[in-house]
Amino acid sequence: MNVHAFAPLDAKTYVRHELHGPGRVWTESNCYIDVWIEILHSLGLDPYACLPHVFSIDFEADQWTFFKPSHDDLFHLYGLDVHELNVWKPLVENVRAQVAAGRIVLSEVDAFFLPDTTGTDYRTSHTKTTIGIQSIDVDARTLRYYHNSGYHELGGPDFAEIFRLDRAPDPSHLPFFAELVRIDRRTRLEDAELVRQSLRALGSHLSRRPGANPVARFEERFAEDMAWIHREGLKAYHAWAFATLRQFGAAFELAGLYVAWLERRGEMGLEPARAAFESISSGVKALVLKTARSVNAKRPLDPSELLGGAERSWDAGMQLLVERYGG
């Protein structure tokens, strides 16, 4: 029997949120925030309000922060309560029980078995990713889930592989991490109150911003990383680019989109901050292409112009927001 957390959504007719629309510089950000954007959208909630978490990202020695909306923000903005799922039975049984109880399950899975990743990982590469499970039919072996920028369906052999159904029990297998999302107390705040709560979150995340400009530290590390990537080749480049350039660029595209959302709701004088964050996003996108060409041709690359501009933009955008909203 098919069970769903809150609605019998159709993957074929699902309309994604505008944050995943064709106008984006970065089509996808990371699996966790992208899943949350679509979950909130499906629940009739505004995902823009939870974006302030991007302002606290940092360069973490060899990668940019893998940014995620905090559980506190999700509760205060929308009434959604997130807890770790104790996978004490076969995962498929835990998932069915939780979805039948009206909860969405966020689970790490192997993208090798996700047909929506055709052309990247599907049946080619074993990569950990997060999906949001909204509907499951164990008898028919069908799963409907949020992943990246949309809502999808899988079945048959892929269902069996995601849940390791047709294999002998393997006591050495470590289950993937999973969370349950309680949606029974979800709240749709009035627009003014949603903005107020979102600005409260913004102040909190600004207070957690890096103490010194993180772009400068990234630029210092860049030459060392490029030397390694030139030795290792394009496969290493793609892994590095996801951990660094994509997280950095996509986060600040969302930062610019969040500021634009505030402007549409009456917050005045923010255009310089929006322009600064948009400049970071577009500059880092250009650096992705330049870096790929450098690796492919094994030619040196000087990132100082693009990263220098991003460094100045980070200072300018953050200063305006901190002066206005604290932190």
Largest sheet: 7 strands, antiparallel
Total DSSP E strands = 7
Low-confidence stretches: none
Task: Give the amount of beta strand, in percent.
Answer: 5-15%
Query: N-to-C SSE series?
Result: EHHEHEEEEHEHHHHH
From the spread of the alpha carbons, the general shape counts as: globular
Query: What average pLDDT do the residues reach?
Result: 95
Q: Give the total of domains.
A: 2
Q: How would you classify the helix and strand content by structural class?
A: alpha+beta
- Percent range of helical residues: 40-55%
Question: If helices are DSSP runs of H or I spanning 4 or more residues, what is the number of helices?
Answer: 9
The N- to C-terminal Cα distance equals 50 Å
Overall radius of gyration: 21 Å
Question: Can you put this structure into words, describing what you see?
Answer:
This protein has 327 residues and is an alpha+beta fold. It has two domains: 2-44 and 81-182, no CATH class; 191-325, no CATH class. The chain is 46% helix and 13% strand. The chain is built from nine helices and seven strands. It has helices at 31-42, 71-78, 91-100, 157-162, 191-206, 214-232, 234-264, 271-297, 304-325, and strands at residues 2-4, 81-84, 103-110, 128-137, 142-147, 150-155, 178-182. Strands 1, 2, 3, 4, 5, 6 and 7 form a seven-stranded antiparallel β-sheet that branches. The N and C termini lie far apart (50 Å). The model has no long low-confidence stretch (mean pLDDT 95).
